[in-house]
Amino acid sequence: MFFLNNFCMTQIIRIFASMKHWIMKYPKSIFVSLVMCLLTAVAHGQPLEKGVPQKLAIQRASQVSNVEYALTFSIPAKKSEPVRGHATICFDWNGMGDVVLDFQGEHNQFDGKCTIVNKKNIEAKKVRRMETFAAFTNEHIIIRKQYLTVGVRNTIHLDFTSSDKSLNRNDEYMYTLFVPDHARSVFPCFDQPDMKATFKLTLEIPTDWKAISNGAAMSNVVENGRRTIEFSESDLLPTYLFSFTAGKFASMTADCNGRQVEALYRETDAKKIAQLPVVFDEIALSLKWLEEYTGISYPFQKYGFVVLPGYQFGGMEHPGAIQFNDKRIFLGEKPTPDEELSRLELIAHETSHMWFGDLVTMRWFNDVWTKEVFANFMASKIARERFPDINHDLNFLKTYQTLAMKTDRTLGTHSIQQPLANLNGAGLLYGNIIYDKAPVMMQKLEEHMGAVALQNGLRKYLSVYSYGNATWDDLITILDAVKPEAMLKEFSHVWVKEKGMPIIEVKATDKQITLTQKDPYGRGLIWPQKFTLVAGNEMERNRLVTVDMSERTFTISTKKHPTLLIPNYNGKGYGRFVIDRTYIHELTKRLLSTKNDLTRYAIALTLYENYLNGVYDKDYFTELFRTLKKERNPLVASALCDHMHQFAIDQEPRLRQRLEGFMLDIVKGSPLPSCRQNMLRLLAADATSTEVLDYLYRTWKLQDDALLNERDYINMSYHLAIMRPAEWANIISTQRGRLKNQDVIREYDYVSRACNPSLSEQRSLFHSLMLRQNRTVEPWVQNTLRLLSCQAREPQNNEFITPGLEVLEEIQQTGDIFFPANWVNALLSGHKSKEAKQLVNEFINTHSSYPKALKNKIMEAAYGVLRTKD
Ligand SMILES: [Zn+2]
Fold this sequence. Notes:
The protein is α+β, with helices and mostly antiparallel strands. It is built from 33 helices and 27 strands. Strands 4-7-2-1-9-12-11 form a 7-stranded mixed β-sheet.
């Protein structure tokens, strides 16, 4: 009753009318608390908030239990026709208050037919019109408590029409993607992670469609021109993990460690389809590895997956029906080692979720990062087994630390764990801090307490909370008991609950080297961590010292002033290492001469960080160029390419064009194919010099570069069409003519419109993106916006900045979880001008009440443009 809105008064009158009866029936204390509760609600006039407020979630989880859903959806072939469904929701009720279901439809999307059955005796069932016992308000259906019964199963039947928001409907297929709280846009439910339920699904689909869901297909019947598939009841799942995909798909089944794994896909290229056996192998490896590590057999009834074109994530961990992005699974003809590793990591990531996230789920989405950190952490371990020849410490540094720092150095950074008052804001929690900084923290936690102790703690956590929910603090309590001397609560506070990274200043005198950590936000925090440092001079040979930063400062005695300092020698240190200019030159020389790949990468990171902070500028590009020409390690080379690219785009146009010429030399002359490929891709995205554009044009026209694939040529065609407006129509039609796959052609037709040189066309395209109905395939939208907002079109495209930022709140409400960040990145990352910087600053200054998490995303995306010198 706390959550009533316009039904409040009727309800109050009814309750007061029955008071006499209550006083007789219940102890006085219950009566008093109910009245108090009611009076509080009246006094505050609290309407039931939209979305899923945490307050509602906590109240509901204690009130309703043992939930079962039986759901039927009728999916028409035409995406213009609505999806209708029927839900039967069964639950136990504790007798305390009205029961609130979530349903994010418009009034007219709720068909109003609803019955309730809650007596053991079928004759006593109450069948009424919906209005009699329930109210539909602010995205909720409120079932009035006088129609519910304690001690028996309460069953509610509802007919409804689903909103298309999370059905991802395409011409020949559709898929549901409900994380974090989008199930409620498709059917009425208790849409919160700690109300796990079973789902019994029936789908009615066109006869030439296939379908996959969490349970196995038990019956599959064609009748009256429609196909009906009944799936077995799912295991216990939160609503965000319930899912189904249906459409025109090809399928393949394989045996993975004695388990039949089914794959659905739309790919038509035989060479790509031939990669599926590798995917099955990697699934089998991941499953075996996780069963051994956790000591728990695969916890769900089936494993299956679907590979989707235009998919907005890399993957999603619905048990039995994992969804993968086709670009991440079906690699181009000549995949780089990075791409192959990244595919395995994706497969291992989603498979790890079966234990971390699916078997044990966070209680609330503020802890969504816990499932992500374990999925990434386990994926890294599995990758070590699958690709033993790769330097995984180096890969970890490149994959996680680099991206974590990319966000952590911006003003948009935040703590790993963030508060979340309503699930409708959960999407904003995602980003590099969750996906990349959390694994850095986890690696430190493992070092801090020991790998075996951590594994034992995790096994206990998974078994105590199996098929249930747990918070990060629940896990820390278990780990703390396993190893009390590790002081994990303090560790967790700094690394998990506070934002930012330490600034570690390294100073040297004749007698000592001092490392001092500073908190960039002045809170006096200390980040406990260990890493190694190398110092040397002509008297003392190079010394390797382990630095323990559990205190504010760490000192190392020396006999003489060192001439060489490599502050983060093993790359295990996380933070901004600040060194004196006097050491930069020597450090730069080591970038070329050090044999250890990991150290070279760590040096490159230190130099880059010092460059970004204005400590190092002169000769930086030249040194990178000299090093890169000789670099043999693909991961180090790829970082150096990025750093050169960043330096080049930071320069004024004439210098930038000259530097692009040097980058082209790398493309032509590097001994390392992946380095050539990386550099070519960077240039193909934003090159400005005539020399480079001519080279790109020739390459694109002849399509004779063995290192490039169709996707590369598509991207090149976009950039070339923008840079050569007179030829744009010809370039686009030539590229379109080369495409074979219908899904790729559809995407190309959508995105390539952004290449049109006519300003009025660009304006009308941009304004069409302001409308939600034109943003259904988010990766396409993102690419289109990125092209519309590219630097080459400054200053005319600056006019898109303010409206593009203004629509962000709506994007967050209507789009998928990664979309707000992707949108604002596409909008801002190309801009470099002072005017653009001013527009962003103006927006931030005039929107002081903008949601903090959303503002953080803007500040993060604006990092590049905000660095522009006034
Ligand atoms: Zn994940």
